[in-house]
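Chapter summary example.
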Amino acid sequence: MGTLQFFCPATHQQASTGIETDLDSLRACWRTAVKVNCPHCGQVHKISVRETYLGMALNDAVDRASMLQRPPVG
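The structure predicted for these 74 residues follows.
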């Protein structure tokens, strides 16, 4: 399970939709859209589920990238 995240179209900041989901549920609603209250600009955005991502997936990718960029210890 993870929370669907999106980027605010006005501020380009990462925000949560508040929707907890898993990959199977995400596949089932791939062609739908959700309306979310944006904490950054205060507007309601209609976001296609295709434009969202699972926060845990992005965090894992960032963690892996940072590990690859660190110099070896020793």
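To summarize the output: The mean pLDDT is 83.
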